[in-house]
């Protein structure tokens, strides 16, 4: 099948870019130094490619992702890097399951759900989940008292990973990780889990990195000068052309919009509607032409699609189900 | 089942609000005066409720929506209010199929795909699809020459429907519709199709209105002072509480973000991440509490979810599949 045979809009990845990105990360952070975050792609077929590169420990953001990874035989060491108040589905999984906890209530839920291992989730500056670093020891003791093993700590410096100035990124990463190391000293355990695509090479304090977006990147991460390349686009058909602009058949339902408009080569994107993208081409386009629309944020883009087509040049060489969507 | 039994995040609609909105629209625009747009909800179960209120003609934005509506027995009069370059799937449907065309190429595609009826799509001011009004007659002649019936014209005043000043909305609607009437004069046919939820009552020039969002509304449309009510929310669990803020378990993958942040009653929303919403509560919340997160734009919100739960008070009385997603 050729790329031109796909019904549009279609989610497409360049297999050479994917392989380059996977190899680059596996060389930089081999084996368990890297714990790929499946939330970025929600695709067990892609996770299997990561495992083939040596990364057999994974991170998830939802219970559904944990269930799907376990069912796909990728349950050697699964971390739910997120808090849940009902862990019963997790305790039943045929997998090694570790869950993030940051409060008495989430520890209680993990214990009640039959979860055996936890990480203490620590707030390292991003206003989201995670306990005060000074509370990490008390929570670890509480988890142990409830019969669970505390494998260590995690803390996501999400406010740092997108910092475009590398010097500032390194500095802020260190500040965040000092908080995590302080918490680790109080909580104990072997694991110090942190990081993301933007800090994979400068976070030298964590002993495992939770990166996801590196697999295919997006226009936001592409600004950081990382050695990964952009390989994911929404393949779209030009359905209408006016004197001043043209319209493609993808839009708000096929693109995550929180990081702003996507990009089109050789064009300025004007705006997106539900199933349309209006753009101003710099070279003439005709009705029926195909365009590559590059998302600003891959995670919520991929989550809209049922499948991901892999291409080698113009050949569609494989189609992977985005099988970890939903909740 | 109670609403508290749902795994979160979950898409929930209040059945009384839905019924109120459906009844209000059916009273204002009975029968074929209203052609509900299924792109808003992508749910054949909800479309069947609209049909039960007397609206048996429908509008779709994608081929998948057309296929699903036909398969659900809702194919009495389906309009694909969008341009396509490959209409072969449409020509095969067991339904009355009409397709929007705005160029020689889309007319050719419709004819080649076995489509029998078209509407000439006219640009009435929104920079998206639609021909120049002056070109409508030529395109209608071309469609007829290719053996298709021209049922009339359509033109979506999408740049007007969200105008908060009602006086301005009415004025701009009239300006747009004058363009559509001019095109209708040139193209002929019975149908003048236009409008949306924001102009359903002031667009007195079209003889059928293509509204979608009125079924459950969102925070954007709620600003217009329409007689419809907001009835759709993402049901979410508070998973972490810090001194200054709290975190719910829904985010960028369960909420369309193009119209900005969603809203939470009695709280200010700070920001959303993939699976999180950080908010500043005005009254204390605890870990495990549930919150209603009101989307700013329902169409791309619903498209993220597999199903919609209907509630009556705290009872979940039905669960509908969002079966028209994807392409």
Outline the structure in words.
The structure is a homodimer of 327-residue chains. With 327 residues, chain A is α/β, with parallel strands linked by helices. Chain A has two domains: 102 residues, Lyase, Ornithine Decarboxylase, Chain A, domain 1; 202 residues, Alpha-Beta Barrel (TIM Barrel). In chain A, 25% of the residues lie in helices and 25% in strands. The first copy, chain A, is built from eight helices and 16 strands. In chain A, strands 1, 9, 10, 11, 12, 13, 14, 15 and 16 form a nine-stranded mixed beta sheet that branches. Chain A has a seven-stranded parallel beta sheet with strand order 2-3-4-5-6-7-8. The mean pLDDT of chain A is 98. Chains A and B meet through strand 9 and strand 12 of A and strand 9 and strand 12 of B.
User: What is the subunit organization of this protein?
Assistant: homodimer
Helix content of chain A: 25-40%
Unreliable stretches covering 5 or more consecutive residues of chain A: none
End-to-end separation of chain A in angstroms reads 32 Å
**What is the name of the CATH superfamily of the largest domain in chain A?**
Alanine racemase
**Total beta-strand segments of chain A:** 16
Order of helices and strands of chain A: EHHEHEHEHEHEHEEEEEEEEHEE
Mean pLDDT of chain A: 98
Backbone CA Rg of chain A: 21 Å
The proportion of residues in beta strands of chain A is 25-35%
CATH top level of the largest domain in chain A? Alpha Beta
Structurally, how many domains make up the residues of chain A? 2
């Amino acid at each position: 099948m050729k790329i031109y045979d796909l019904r549009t809009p279609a989610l497409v990845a360049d297999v050479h870019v994917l392989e380059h990105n996977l190899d680059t990360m596996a060389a930089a952070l081999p084996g368990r130094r890297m714990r790929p975050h499946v939330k970025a792609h929600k695709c067990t077929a892609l996770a299997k490619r990561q495992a083939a590169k040596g990364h057999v420990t994974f991170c998830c953001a939802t219970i559904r992702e944990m269930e799907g990874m376990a069912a796909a035989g990728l349950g050697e060491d699964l971390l739910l890097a997120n808090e849940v108040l009902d862990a019963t589905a997790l305790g039943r999984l045929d997998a090694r399951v570790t869950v993030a906890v940051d409060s008495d209530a989430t520890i209680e839920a993990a214990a009640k759900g039959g979860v055996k291992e936890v990480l203490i989730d620590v707030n390292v500056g991003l206003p989201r989940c995670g306990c005060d670093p000074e509370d990490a020891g008390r929570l670890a003791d509480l988890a142990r008292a409830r019969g669970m093993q505390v494998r260590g700590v995690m803390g996501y410096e999400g406010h740092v990973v997108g910092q475009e100035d590398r010097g500032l990124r390194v500095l802020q990463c260190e500040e965040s990780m000092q908080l995590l190391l302080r918490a680790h000293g109080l909580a104990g355990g072997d694991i110090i889990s942190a990081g993301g695509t933007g800090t994979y090479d400068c976070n030298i304090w964590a002993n495992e990195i939770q990166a996801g977006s590196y697999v295919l990147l997006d226009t936001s991460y592409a600004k950081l000068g990382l050695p990964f390349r952009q390989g994911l686009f929404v393949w779209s058909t030009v359905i209408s052309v006016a004197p001043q602009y043209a319209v493609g058949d993808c839009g708000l339902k096929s693109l995550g919009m929180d990081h702003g408009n996507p990009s089109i080569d050789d064009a300025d994107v004007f705006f997106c509607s539900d199933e349309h993208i209006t753009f101003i081409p710099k070279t003439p386009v005709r009705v029926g032409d195909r365009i590559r629309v590059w998302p600003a944020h891959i995670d919520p883009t991929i989550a809209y699609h049922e499948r991901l087509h892999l291409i080698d040049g113009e050949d569609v060489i494989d189609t992977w189900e985005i099988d970890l969507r939903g909740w």
